[in-house]
Amino acid sequence: MIQQLNVVPFVSVDHMMKLVHAIGIERMLSDIAGYIEDDFRRWEIFDKTPRIASHSLEGVIELMPTSDGRLYGFKYVNGHPKNMKAGLQTVTAFGLLSDVATGYPVLLSEMTFLTALRTAAMSAVAAKHLAPKNAATMAIIGNGAQSEFQAFAFRAILGIENLRLYDVDPAATEKCARNLARHGFKITRCATAMEAVEGAEIVTTVTADKQYATILTDNMVGAGVHINAVGGDCPGKTEIHRDVLLRSSIFVEYPPQTRIEGDIQQLAPDHPVEELWKVITGAAQGRTDARQITLFDSVGFAIEDFSALRYVYERIREAGTYVDLDLIADPDDPRDLFGMLMRAAPGAAAAA
């Protein structure tokens, strides 16, 4: 992509929605999943660090940086579960890509929608490598803002259309069921989490409360299930009972981050886990037994956001879903930033 160095493409919320509709949500989820897999195969070349978090009683604000040596990217994201009661989003985000060679930004984008898309795509990528073969039914426990994206990703990548839905708030389940039924999914509304997992080969937990919780207890999880644990994503916030973890083969993105933020924060620091990038590259095994319980302890990692931003960067010109921002000062003489400022003063042109 060729651009003026001082002008940065900006993808607004409206632009992102238009991009999704121009491409199609399932195609876009599949494409982002492909970019994630490609970047996970390059895992070893990336800068990697646990996200930088600022915690408060109300929630968390985080920065998630990484680089592949050619592009640098970061995401700003928050998680404030109490926002919903005030009519606000629990999670909001924006992100930026920069050219490593110059340090100049090349893309600024909303990432509230894009995070929802990449989180769902990441879940489906993990399930592609870990879930039982020919899985047909998924339980989604927690039917908030992320739930529909998970459903579309699992249909796009694994062909799953049978969904069993449960949320502590029945209105959330009704919202989710209404949104998905109109797109051809087969929906079962469930009264309890126990009921939701009955007959499901894949169980996705995606709740928002910032606290230790046990959405799945040991008696709820039978042999052969794949658990997609999405909602436990910061210190003090979990969804899966420790006994379930001890029975599971656990797969993670980046252990130093997941041991702090994921469900495995309940386990010993040296409890064995496998890194998903190794499964994707063939360096490690995923599911090895039909009765094995696999668990993807998904907390979200910066490389996934990098993949999503890289995808958007490579699609927006064709779709026209961006505007140019005059973001970087560009004086004729790079040493004369002050002169550029003075020439912009009211009446400066007339005086000259």
From TrEMBL:
InterPro entries registered for this protein in UniProt: NAD(P)-bd_dom_sf, ODC_Mu_crystall, ODC_N
Enzyme Commission (EC) number: 4.3.1.12
Single annotated GO MF: ornithine cyclodeaminase activity
Key words of the record: Lyase
PANTHER family documented for this protein: KETIMINE REDUCTASE MU-CRYSTALLIN (PTHR13812)
Entry similarity comment: Belongs to the ornithine cyclodeaminase/mu-crystallin family.
NCBIfam families, sorted: PRK07589.1
Protein name: Ornithine cyclodeaminase
Species: Bosea thiooxidans
Upper lineage: Bacteria, Pseudomonadati, Pseudomonadota, Alphaproteobacteria, Hyphomicrobiales
